[in-house]
Specification:
The chain is mostly helical. It has one domain. The chain is about 70% helix and about 0% strand. It has 13 helices and no strands. The protein is globular, with a radius of gyration of 19 Å.
Length: about 300
């Protein structure tokens, strides 16, 4: 069954653009509207790929190569993501560090491409992206440290396969704190409400969208596609934590874990429908609170570990 572990990255490459569509459908339902099709991002990507890219005279080669590099980093990170009892296509001890570096590298290219445009608005968005990501990363790393202590494994596949029903019965508070911190991390890293509004058109309040204002055509398509893959990655991390099903049957894996991705999108859509966007000065406080959950969980796990 090991050879089938490539099926889930392939499923992600095909199905990831559906996740933003599900979120928009949920938001439209709460607003009493019909909303766009769940497949709208596929239509947008096809339209953008048929167009040409327009580049400002102030941009350099950095701006032109940023979009393909961002997509490449995100796609490689996808290969490190396990699915329940099935190991990732690329798995080794400490692979979670590579996952963090790949996501950080993709963010680095996004930030420098925004700065390369010499736009004050895009530079403002880039500074916010760097600030919030620096404050969000501790909660992700603290969560991994807690799970390493809990499972005794330093690889993503070993961590995912080491969490079952018994773990949720014996260590539910610790795992729940990590799940809550990671869910807010998912909202922050993917520029969703209450951290950012992907549908806003006010440059003064945008973070991610303002950084890609100068992108067009195929470049914009690659960035939008990479964003959907990033949402899939963070959703996969959350599902591997909160779902204790460790199934050896490939069909059961498909029936449980892939639909779970759309359940995560459903939760994101509900969150965006019942919450307003936070003030920019409030977001760091929430991020610090998310990291504090990780610290408390780590302290509890250290006490258990050394007893």
């Amino acid at each position: 069954m090991t050879g089938w572990n490539w099926l889930f990255p392939l499923a992600a490459l095909i199905l990831a653009p559906l996740l933003p569509g599900v979120i928009n459908k949920v938001k439209a339902f709460f607003a009493g509207r019909r909303g766009p099709s769940s497949f709208q991002l596929y239509y947008d990507l096809a339209k953008l790929l048929r167009k040409g890219s327009v580049y400002s005279h102030s941009t350099t080669l950095i701006f032109r190569i940023a979009a393909p590099l961002i997509l490449a980093c995100t796609a490689v990170a996808l290969l490190l993501l396990p699915w329940g009892g099935m190991s990732a296509p690329v798995s080794f001890a400490g692979d979670f560090i590579l996952l963090l570096y790949l996501l950080a590298l993709a963010r680095f290219f996004l930030v420098i491409s925004a700065l390369d445009t010499a736009s004050a608005f895009e530079g403002m968005g880039a500074s916010r992206e760097v600030l919030f990501s620096a404050m969000a990363e501790p909660s992700l790393m603290l969560g991994f440290l807690v799970l390493i202590l809990h499972t005794g494994s330093t690889g993503l596949s070993g961590i995912a396969s080491g969490i079952g029903f018994n773990d949720w019965q014996s260590s539910a508070p610790v795992l729940l704190m990590i799940a809550m911190a990671w869910f807010f991390l998912l909202l922050c890293e993917n520029s969703r409400i209450p951290v950012d509004d992907p549908n806003t058109h006010l440059e003064l309040t945008m973070i991610h969208e303002v950084m890609i204002l100068d992108n067009s055509g195929p470049d914009l398509a690659l960035l939008e596609y990479a964003s959907s893959l990033k949402l899939w990655i963070f959703g996969g991390l959350l599902i591997n934590l909160i779902l204790p099903f460790r199934l050896d049957n490939l069909i059961y894996q498909i029936l449980v874990f892939i639909p779970s991705m759309f359940i995560v999108s459903l939760l994101v859509g509900i969150t965006e429908s019942i919450m307003a966007r936070l003030k920019l000065i409030t977001i760091p406080k929430v991020l610090v609170g998310s990291a504090a959950l990780g610290i408390v969980a780590l302290l509890v796990k250290l006490v258990e570990y050394y007893q």
